[in-house]
Amino acid sequence: MGRIHILSDLVANQIAAGEVVERPASVVKELLENSLDAHATRIRIEVEAGGRKLIRITDNGHGMVRDDALLAFERHATSKLRSADDLLSIATLGFRGEALPSIASVSRLQMETRVAEEASGTVVEIAGGNILRVEDAGLPVGTTITLRDLFFNTPARRKFLKSEQTELSHIAALVTHYALVHPTKHFELHSSTQALLVAPAVANSADRLFQIFGKDTSNYMLPTTAELDFNRAGLPEPPPWKRDEDYVAPDPGYLRLTGFVSKPELQKLNRNSIYVFVNQRLIRDKLILHALSEAYRNILPPTSYPVVLLYLEMPAQEVDVNVHPAKTEVRFRQPSFVHDFVRDTIRTTLIQARPAASFATALQNGPHGVSSSLLIDVSPLPGLPDGSDAIRQPVFDPTFQPTTFEGHPLTPLTVEEDGACYFSNGSETARWDVPTSTEAVKSPNFQLAAPIVPPSPGRFAFAGHSIPVGYESIEAELGYDPASPQQADTLTALSTLKPLGQLRDSFILATNEEGLWIIDQHVAHERILFEKVLRDRDTEQIQRQRLLMPLLVDLLPAQMITFAEIAEELERNGFEVEPFGPRTLAVKAAPVGLEGLELEHLLEEILAVPDRNRQTENSEARRRRIAASIACHAAIKINQPLEHSKIEWLLESLGKTEHPTACPHGRPIALRYSYKDIAKAFQRI
């Protein structure tokens, strides 16, 4: 008897499940993608026990007829491929035909589906790969798939699942991803105890970003968009002898990038906040991650990561999604073209935006969310002396009588049953509504929340003429205009700064119409020198100075090997260095501004590269690393007094740099305390 035999369909499906169904989130991913391919506009996901006990996905897609509902659970049965040529241009999220039979082989599954053309739907129930029942039923249009007891017949797989909270977090992250890439669809995610995500359909990606991440994160995001014709990539075509007579060159199409990238001040400790989609498919691609790292190089610290929401669109034949069973990895036909396009687009966005960091922590003690409506604060200003001429703090009190209206004394007229008080100043009449219970009193003109203990702020929004009470009058006196272009959080006004002086000979204090600025003099000069070194190196205009006596630097054997690798780059950056024995270097010339111990420390820093970095460092990364080290050691130091003219030159030069946001090592350069922030911190608006 032979040794080789054919596996049963059940075993084959369970093996395939090991590739496709890694955890409950994998099941949700496969079924969610099927719902999206079915053009569903509303998708509801319910899970219990992290997906172990229950996973139910309901959609309003086009559904299936009875025959298709049964055929869908056969291996390699799919509606998305017809021939092998279709594999070269896959435009759907699912296509393998392995997901449903694999999932059904390791769970108790029930599918309810109906198409709009049929009067009744179909219910299919399967347990462990065996069909238990198939019957007609009255169902809404769409598909509902319910899974219970995932891995009930493969206890080894069930044992290696993580905790319920961990598995639930993976599902939540997955649904969040797809909600971000499909803003015009309605998504819901419910656990057994709460609604984790309810994302109604919105108009565009910006609204979805605000809806899911909130105002705080949205304010730190920069929109980015770009498009490039694939004609520039030099697409290969078949040779003439393989072309048909009627051969027509295919349209290469376009590579489009849209999305949002975070300002440098928003940093994360891992890559979990990087969301990348290719043709609306969620992917984890090392090429794109490397392009993002290169775009933020010398802007963020090496151990920090940005928040990125990136949508890439390209012709289906330009990307191969059939390289991983879970379809989370892709392979680009022209990887270097895509890599450089992503890197250059994001870097250009950061250069043009020039975002400015602000004193966000200073605002935590002041009122938030002030809009154009009047904010009534319920707590008196601390330290306000009685009988002072200071502006009266508008404390809410139901018995409080307004004293002035348009500069004239107010006289009470009548009090209505609904709590409305009418006052007159002799020529005009004003209405003031006060709450008569714990419920908020509403009128056609405004809404006022009742005070609670401790009291909370309320809002008035008067139509027509408003009563100049409290912060509204102060805001007008300060001349603050919320729509003023000066309120933009950018660094375009650095060259207009007027220096005030230095703080402990380390930080420059300056001011302009936007507010008060604090600039770190060392990192500011470091950014200026860094970009100058890169420019001068490219144009071969590096200024070097010869040393009176060669500087001898002793190195380790590994550092000598590193020197041999980067000797040419050191030469192009203004160094004249040669070996002086087996483990010694003789430095005869160096870039202007480096001398003595700084020069010695610089060489040790450049040559002391960890193995893991040296193995992956390309020529561009090496060039920027060396330029950053030169700039750091040649820059102005802290605790160094500067003349007024030197400070003015520093601020003017900083305003001309491409990235005045951060030094080459990722530290912030300038922090702005805007005029609006100052007024808020002092509770003036």
Tell me about this structure.
Helix content is about 30%, strand content about 25%. It contains 17 helices and 32 strands. It has an 8-stranded mixed beta sheet. A 5-stranded mixed beta sheet has the order 9-10-13-11-12, sandwiched between helices. β20 and β21 (about 420-425) form a beta hairpin. α13 (about 595-605) runs antiparallel to α15.
Question: In brief, what are we looking at here?
Answer:
With 685 residues, the protein is an alpha+beta fold.
List the helices and strands and how they pair.
Blueprint: H1 9-20, H2 24-37, E1 42-48, E2 54-59, H3 66-71, H4 99-104, E3 108-114, E4 121-127, E5 130-137, E6 142-148, H5 155-159, H6 164-181, E7 186-190, E8 195-199, H7 205-218, E9 221-229, E10 254-262, E11 274-278, E12 281-282, H8 286-295, E13 308-313, E14 319-320, E15 331-332, H9 335-353, E16 357-358, E17 374-376, E18 404-405, E19 408-409, E20 411-415, E21 420-424, E22 429-433, E23 441-442, E24 447-448, E25 458-460, H10 471-478, E26 498-503, E27 507-512, E28 515-520, H11 521-538, E29 544-554, H12 557-572, E30 576-579, E31 584-591, H13 596-607, H14 611-616, H15 619-634, H16 644-655, E32 670-674, H17 675-681
Parallel strand pairs: 1-7, 11-13, 16-32
Antiparallel strand pairs: 1-2, 2-6, 3-4, 3-6, 4-5, 7-8, 9-10, 10-13, 11-12, 14-15, 17-25, 18-19, 20-21, 21-22, 23-24, 26-27, 27-28, 28-32, 29-31, 30-31
